[in-house]
Amino acid sequence: MPPTIAPGNTWTYTQNKAKKQNKKPENIIINSDDKAVLIDLSIARCVSENDGKDTATLGTIGYAAPEQYGITQSGKSTDIYALGVLLNIMITGTHPAIDQPGGAIRHIITKATSTQISKRYKSSKELQKELRFFI
Asked: Could you count the other beta carbons within 10 Å of the beta carbon of residue 43?
């Protein structure tokens, strides 16, 4: 069964420490249970806590977090960044660097897509909790 997008991140990290690096609209479908799932895991990788940075640059420009370009190792926050970009595109039709919605959802997107890892949500559960008012 393919992983679900936000809740699945929690399972994936605690069970396999895998990271799904290519979250973008083309890689997401709605299954028969009305859950959004990722269908392209071709560049998923296991997170190694001993590595200082990723060994290869992977991901789609615009959706990939800054750390995916060799700055530091990808991790949970990398998927949170991609979810923030995806959420913004679903709402505005464009990347958050170009335009963002107003109101409370803007704060959520800004935090999720911060270039500073320490300022992003610490987990997908934390992001999910913030989004509960919009779902």
From this structure: 15
Interval 32-79: pLDDT, tens: 888 877 665 555 545 555 655 554 545 667 777 878 777 777 778 888
**Within 10 A of 91 (CB to CB), how many other CB atoms are there?**
16
Q: For 46, list phi and psi in degrees, rounded to 5.
A: -85, 140
Strand partners, 46: 18
Q: Which residues of 106-119 are buried (b: 16+ CB within 10 A; e: fewer)?
A: eebbebbbbeebee
Q: Which of 100, 20, 17 is nearest to 63 (CA)?
A: 20
Question: What is the per-residue pLDDT for 85?
Answer: 92
C-alpha span between 46 and 51 (Å, rounded)? 11
d(Cα 60, Cα 24) in Å, to the nearest integer?
A: 8
CA distance 80 to 96: 14
Higher pLDDT, 57 or 31: 31
